[in-house]
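HOLO CASE FILE
Compound: 6-O-phosphono-beta-D-glucopyranose
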Amino acid sequence: MKKEFPKGFLWGASTSAYQVEGAAYEDGKKASQQDVINHENYEKHGFANADIASDHYHHFKEDVALMKEMGFSAYRFSIAWSRVFPDGVGDVNEKGIQFYRDLIDELIRNDIEPIVTLYHYDLPWTLVEKYDGWIDRQVVADFEYYARYVINEFKDKVKYWTTINEQSIIVQYIEQKCFIPEKYRGNNQIRYQINHHMNLAHAIACKLVHELVPGGMVGAALGYAPVYPLSSSPQDMMAAQNAHDLRNAFYLDIYFKGFYTKSAMIYLEEHGLAPVIEPGDMELIEEGESDFLALNYYYSDCAKACPLDAGKEISYGGVNLSGKKGEMSGFETHPGFYEMCKNPNLDTTDWDWSIDPTGLEYLFRDIYMRYNKPLMITENGMGAFDTLTEDGKIHDDYRIQYLREHIKAMKRAMDYGVEILAYCPWSALDLISTSNGVKKRYGFIYVDRTDDDPKECKRLKKDSFYWYQKVLKSNGDELD
Ligand code: BG6
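Model generated. Tokens follow.
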């Protein structure tokens, strides 16, 4: 390594509200769409629901103390819209907003910079019942109502704001991330319509931060996987370019340049998938300038050519529900454009996510050199089955190895000039995964519960906790 991490570099970790908080119906909070989706997941697959999650709502002081002990200088978390406005709009829920006041104050008391995400998949259920949620344009105005209140409330305490979590992943995994009423299921156009509404909401939130927060900085949190061609054939190379345009550039161009990537838009128009864009929308999107981009990076992707006459249909991302390697249910396919596939050069996690630290270096270089805005990591991590030993230890050397190599890759990108503000991997503590319950764990802090039994959610320190503590103490110097 050439230079040292800059002084003031933010080290921490991340969570999201519905995945850790629990207290899903307590102190005036009403259901979010994730409370409903996760109840269905429990019925269908036996994955823990969000009712108790990691019970962070009742343990937050203990959790912040553990973050402090690890040496965090930042913590990225989200605010649950339905805790603040149980019906989406209307009267604020005093006890709900008080929870976030207490959490933010506790962080600041411990010298931990709050990085706040306004929206992480959990739309108030009332808005789904009222007008089918993100499918309807009304959601943009309601989001503005909520965002204005929250940003104004914390304008003197929170400098870093992220707007919407992972629009790219929402488009891919629409039914996991948004409740889609029966009549819309299988309608792929709504993926891009919802995304368009989120682009408007994102732009509004950027403008609000600039209007209300002195010195505030704002950007989206984008789920990002660089796309490699399966081979060096020109056809695979072109497929990888197409996949990059539709899966990555389609979001980067909106956030940084205020327009939709043309090639992707033409593909969508040709297939009846393009969003309806109303007069004034693109002007608003252009006005919503980002100061940085937050990136959630877990794996890289791979694409190959998919000829039109291959007899395939448009399909979206598959999932591995079992945690047994090789059981991924399928790959996104757009005949005539690209088909995603497994990269034979990379090992994977038990859930078939490729492990590729160099992919992180590559994307940092690629994004920064094109758009020239600061970047931060708000997610990066390894989902694994952890084992709690009889003497209360968790030996997660695989996670240490994963994080160590990714930090090295991030540092190499910095050595080549990329401006990176923060590293907040996923996750500070164990939580409910969006697709696999609590048995797929990510945290530095072990939460003692199972999918069926929340027990007392006792906190225990994993080996990675002590390792990360050393990393942070040395400002990223001691990684081994
Ligand atoms: C990101 C999300 O997509 O990946 C998180 O922002 C999520 O909410 C994380 O938990 C890991 O994915 P999963 O499906 O393993 O929980």
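CASE NOTES: The radius of gyration is 21 Å. The chain has a mean pLDDT of 97.
CLOSED: yes
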